[in-house]
Structures are given as C-alpha cells and as structure tokens.
Design a protein that fits this description.
The chain is α+β, with helices and mostly antiparallel strands. 54% of the residues lie in helices and 16% in strands. The N and C termini lie far apart (33 Å).
Length: 194
C-alpha cells in the first residue's frame, strides 16, 4: 500500500490489476448512495473510497496531485462534489463537468485496473484499511510500478485533446513524458482556472 502525507491528512492507495468485479463495484456505490438508515450508513462506509480507473493515470505524481487538490478543496470548504473521494475524480478530469469526471475516471463496467484511495485525518491501523479495500475489490493487488502496464496513453491523449501536439514530440518516451506533464499540470492548475 502506498501512502501520501499532506500536512494533517494521509491518503492510502492500492492498485488492483486485473479487476474482476468492476460492474459490481459501480452498482454497489450507486446502491449505497440510495440506501437509508443504519444499513445505508454501513454500506456507504464499506465503499468509502475513491475508485479510479488506473488506465487514465499517467504517473504516481499525477495521482498524488489529484489527491492533494481534493484535500485542499475540502479544507477550504470548496468541494464541487459531494465527497473528498469523488473530488479526486473531478480533479483528474480536464473539464469542469462532474458527471463526465465520474463517468471517465471512476469505476466502470469495463475497468480493468483500479486505484482504490482512502483519505483520513488521522492514520489508523493500515491492515484494517487494506482489508476493507480488498473486500471491496475482487482483483489482484499489484505494486505501483505496474501502472506503466495499464496506462492507456491514447485515451489520455483524447481526453486532454493532445493528438496533434504529441505527434510532434518524437519517440514514445518523449511523447509519454509530455502527456504526463500536461496531465499533472491540468490537475494542478484546475482550482486556479475556475
């Protein structure tokens, strides 16, 4: 499990690839949002994570920047979405359309790899959190280094409207570095641009 420290907040993240139950995760999130009473609260707690389609993450810094932006938005009372975990998805999307952000960057029926992220104010037992994440996702937990195998560079180029610029960048390594820099900058500048 990776952790990111931001002043008083800590974000924990696991990468799962492959994921066997993306449709069930998506439906569970939808059902938890609609559920009422103590059962609803329990179910919301069970899926109280950001489920991020890993194919759209260019690097560790890209993910870390989105998490940081969500933490800043929450600390300033400026969340544009309902939770800090959905705010991460909003931060990743290059446009300001919340529905589009959740549809693109969140778990979908076709997600093959997922980052599962949880943000806390005070760290608790990591093993308990890791077990909750593993219970929510039927998949194989892999190291962050595996991200390079699941990133869909063509889809990222499309979402960031970079097809023409990237063609001019030369070899694949240069092109991917350029795309990574654009994606990170897009997340970092999003709150300034609004």
């Amino acid at each position: 499990m990776e952790s990111f420290q931001f002043n008083h907040n800590v974000a924990y993240a696991l990468l799962f690839s492959p994921v066997n139950n993306p449709g069930k995760i998506k439906q569970r999130i939808i059902n938890a949002a609609k559920a009422t009473g103590s059962e609803g609260n329990e179910e919301r707690e069970a899926v109280n994570f950001s489920f991020i389609d890993a194919s759209l993450i260019t690097s560790r810094l890209h993910l870390e920047t989105a998490i940081h932006q969500a933490i800043i938005a929450e600390s300033q009372g400026l969340l544009r979405t309902k939770t800090i975990h959905s705010e991460i998805l909003f931060a990743l999307n290059p446009t300001n359309n919340i529905t589009e952000a959740i549809r693109r960057y969140g778990v979908s029926d076709t997600s093959k790899a997922l980052f599962v992220v949880h943000i806390v104010d005070s760290p608790g037992p990591i093993s308990d959190l890791e077990n909750k994440m593993k219970q929510a996702v039927d998949g194989t937990m892999v190291p962050f280094d595996e991200l390079a195998k699941v990133t869909d560079w063509d889809k990222i180029k499309k979402y960031h409207k970079l097809a023409n610029q990237v063609m001019e960048k030369g070899d694949a390594v240069q092109a991917r570095t350029f795309i990574d820099n654009v994606a990170i900058s897009s997340v970092a500048m999003k709150s300034v641009m609004q």
